[in-house]
Amino acid sequence: MDAFVSKYVREQKRYTKNDLRTLFSFTEEEIQAFLRRLKAYGVMKAVKNTPLQMELSDLTDEDIAITDDATGSNDCFYVFNFVGVLTVGNRVIKCFPKYITQNPEPTAEMKQTIKVLQRYGSKEQIINMYNGDGQNSSFNLLAVMLFLLDDYHQNGLYINTEDIVELNGEGPILWEQTINNGFAIISNSRPYYVDLYTHRSVDDENDFFYRLHKCVVTECSQQLREAGILDLFDMVEADISDETRGDLGDDDYILYRLQSELNVQYNTHKQVLLKTLYAYIAHHRTLAENFGISMYGTTSFNLVWEDVCKEVFNDRLNTQLRNLQLPNGIAAGYTPTDQLISIIEKPKWQGWKEDGTPFEKEAADTLIPDIITLADIDGACSFIILDAKYYCIQLEPNKVLRGQPGVGDVTKQYLYQLAYKQFIADHGIGIVRNCFLMPTEKDTIIKKGIARMQMLEQLNLQNIQIRLLPAQKMYELYLAKRKMNISDLEL
Fold first, then answer.
1. Which pairing describes strands 91-96 and 5-10: parallel, antiparallel, or unpaired?
2. H or E segment at 251?
3. DSSP code of 351?
């Protein structure tokens, strides 16, 4: 087996074909297959090779090249649209977030990012055994290996127990068998049993599935270590078996035994484990021999950043009014069970019947802010509207503006305040603040500036402030399930 080639790449950085061929030591034929494979699964995009593109840090749908990118080495830039770890054969690609620009191999930051991805992904409780769907579907070997090793560290080995009946053991007494089969001495009209039948459960370490689980965990551990992935996930190696799977039989026999065990196993966790072992055996290749893509991560890291900000700043959008600290209590016209999200008006569509009389329909959807929170700042109740933006803004005096949220993002942020304007007035809330939240690799909060539109200022709406938040600190709070004091933003 060829040694693994493990490299860091930055999300949304522009690479030429020659850059990638050199970075991963590919031949011309290999680089073509590599690029096609990554593009097929949506983890890489091709954009036009222009000086403007080279300067950009954010990728938009308009940037995607329509041209055939296979015509030459430098006809296109290639952009990783993914945060996490990818394996393609014996190439290991560690994609770190785009806001990290100073360190080309940010191991500590990558470890923390993976922990954030693990916590974010754990909400769904899904083992991602497959990438994509339909024609581009492939078995996700890396995700399965990581699950099996993590599950072993969390829950131990698959074990079946053997029930043993003993004479005069230390377990619970089996009275029915003792009475039916035992010899009793009668004294004062009471029976005394010379021998007691007792019950004991013993873990069967010769069990087929116990041995299989040990073999597979050891295999996964060794391959992840060789690929340099164990350390990245802060996992401990588990070299726990001297057997190989060949000692237990061929793959068809092992799959037959697993299916038979699934038919009689009703423990939910054991069912999940058996199904995962079945998938691993059925699609068995080593990580380096895997011709598809294996991955652990996301092509939508913006949703991860949004979730981090929601939790750290205590989003109250779906909180009932009775659970909010409103300065004058709940105003007339509102009910205690109303949620903040339900306060926002939904569009209404009016039409006319055949006889000319009007009718009205209400849309199901409406404006949905990322984060709404109420806070006591300097003794005053403040209504805070926050929007998590996974952007790398360039807002400097002698440089062109780029990497900023679009005009639609800005206008929506004003509209969120407008949507709550009556609610704010009815409840005597005196302070309203509006802010974009963007990540930075710096270690302090940066007051970056303001987004404003004069025509909306004239409606007495707050301009949108911009805060760059230290991602490392935000992730620490998110992983510890702690909150940041809203006053730290100095809005």
1. parallel
2. helix 251-264
3. E
Rounded to whole angstroms, the Cα distance separating 412 from 414 reads 5
Of 8, 14, 10, the closest CA to residue 78 belongs to 14
d(CA 462, CA 215): 62
Question: Is 198:175 a contact under the CB 8 Å cutoff?
Answer: no
Question: What predicted TM-score, i.e. pTM, was given to this entire model?
Answer: 0.85
CA distance 200 to 459: 77
- Neighbour-count burial of 92, counting CB atoms closer than 10 A to its CB (0-12 exposed, 13-18 middle, 19+ buried): buried
Helices (H), 329-438: 340-343, 407-419, 421-426
Give the long-range contacts of residues 259-268, CB within 8 A, separation 24 or more: 261/209
Q: CA-based diameter of the chain, in Å? A: 106
Q: CA-CA distance, 163 to 380, in Å (whole number)?
A: 67
**Position 178 pLDDT exceeds 50:** yes
pLDDT digits (tens, 9 = 90+) for 44-87: 988 887 766 655 556 554 555 544 444 445 678 899 999 999 99
| Residue appearing with tokens 């005394």 | 192
Stretch (H or E) spanning 175: helix 175-181
Report the alpha-carbon distance of residue 128 to residue 121 in Å, rounded: 10
Which DSSP string do the residues of 331-342 spell out, in sequence order?
PTT--TT-BHHH
Average pLDDT over the chain reads 87
pLDDT band with cut points at 50, 70 and 90 for residue 161: low
- Tell me the percentage of the chain whose pLDDT exceeds 70: 89
| Distances in whole angstroms, Cα of residue 285 to Cα of each of 88, 227, 345 | 13, 14, 55
3-state secondary structure of 103: coil
| CA dihedral over 125, 130, 134, 136, signed as positive or negative | positive
